């Protein structure tokens, strides 16, 4: 049996050999450390009596931006740094099914962090606000930040902010301000940050979205 673990484009094969199975077990392999903004894929593996298996989270919370599929793919793009504890359950296809649980502890470190500094607000016929960015990695990012206002009526996106610059290692809370006059109507603001590490062929992404529709009453 082979387990494949994918992290930041690197595949690691872990081979295990077992005889006839009389009970279910989950492979005892700790999850690697995750970085906010970096794509993550890990395929969980179990051995048991009657595959295929069905996976679910029964306790605790996965990192924001990460999901567990019924097939056992733990994947996504963590959005916030922090420490997370969760328990998964795996059922086999027996009648009745056999089940086993396993608890995980993992840490999401600060890779690329995008946060609201000033939430988008209406000022006359403008939407203004700001975001802030942090780089917790040892790499310099070629960073692009794009902020758009998406109209509720026709989903048309209007750029209201743009910056491209080098975000140095260890940089914290670097502000990027945005603002633009817009036609009358409702808008939802999206902020996207894309960090490229060219020498490692790695791209990190983060996205924010304003919670409420902002109403511009009078156009420019």
At the fold tier of CATH, the topology name of the largest domain is Immunoglobulin-like
Number of separate domains:
2
Looking at the overall shape, the CATH architecture of the largest domain is Sandwich
The parts where pLDDT drops under 50 for at least 5 residues are: 1-21
Count of discrete alpha- or pi-helical segments spanning 4 or more residues:
0
The CATH C-level name of the largest domain is Mainly Beta
Share of helix, binned = under 10%
Word description of this protein:
The chain is 0% helix and 60% strand. It has 2 domains: 2-109, Immunoglobulins (Immunoglobulin-like, Sandwich), CATH 2.60.40.10; 112-216, Immunoglobulin-like (Sandwich), CATH 2.60.40.3880. Residues 1-21 have low confidence and may be disordered. The protein is elongated and about 70 Å long. It has 220 residues and is mainly beta. The termini are far apart. The strands form 5 sheets. It has a 5-stranded antiparallel beta sheet, with no helix packed on it.
Summarize it.
The protein has 220 residues and is mostly beta strands. It is 0% helix and 60% strand. The strands form 5 sheets. It has a 5-stranded antiparallel sheet with strand order 2-1-5-9-8, with no helix packed on it. Strands 14, 15, 17, 18 and 19 form a 5-stranded antiparallel sheet that branches. The protein has a 4-stranded mixed sheet with strand order 4-11-10-7, with no helix packed on it.
Which keywords apply here?
220 residues; mainly beta; Immunoglobulin-like; 5-stranded antiparallel beta sheet; 0% helix; elongated
What's the layout of helices and strands?
Elements: E1 2-7, E2 10-15, E3 25-26, E4 34-35, E5 40-43, E6 46-47, E7 54-60, E8 66-68, E9 73-76, E10 82-91, E11 99-109, E12 112-123, E13 126-135, E14 141-151, E15 157-167, E16 174-181, E17 185-197, E18 202-209, E19 214-216
Parallel strand pairs: 4-11
Antiparallel strand pairs: 1-2, 1-5, 3-6, 5-9, 7-10, 8-9, 10-11, 12-13, 13-16, 14-15, 14-17, 17-18, 17-19
